[in-house]
Design goal:
Shape: elongated
Helix content: 55-70%
Number of strands: 0
Order of helices and strands: HHHH
Number of helices: 4
Length: 134
């Protein structure tokens, strides 16, 4: 759900003419969205844990002198279709990784400034991708 959708929902809830059925429908949709977000988060956490485990096993295998230490990582990447297909793709991946690594210090140094509005309410965004009941 986008920030604009949240703002639209807040505006609708605070409007003068509210109907209980409308609010119930909005609450139901929000719960559905929340459930979907939790499933996506759990899936991503599972992928992350599998990749982290494979990376740690790869380093451990390398430290132990295993003749094929990359087996764990290759298997995990292959399972998700993330192995480079050819040399050109491998070079692109390496280039992207170098660029991302050079940007990390810039992102870590930035501290987002939060501006609060005098009345404590946030500004509404314009745009509607979800229709609210009238």
């Amino acid at each position: 759900m986008t920030r604009s959708e949240f703002d639209d929902i807040r505006a609708h809830i605070t409007a003068e003419a509210r109907h209980a059925a409308d609010l119930l429908q909005i609450a139901s949709e929000l719960l559905d969205d929340l459930e979907q977000a939790r499933v996506r988060e759990a899936t991503l956490r599972s992928y992350y844990l599998s990749l982290l485990t494979a990376a740690r096993a790869t380093v451990a295998a390398s430290n132990a002198g295993d003749p094929a230490p990359m087996t764990f990582l290759v298997h995990e990447l292959d399972k998700h279709g993330q192995l480079p297909a050819d040399d050109a793709e491998a070079r692109r991946i390496l280039s992207d990784a170098k660029t991302a690594q050079s940007l990390i210090p810039l992102v870590e140094d930035e501290t987002p400034a939060r501006r609060s509005r005098p009345n404590g309410r946030s500004r509404s965004c314009v745009g509607v991708s979800r229709t609210l009941p009238r």
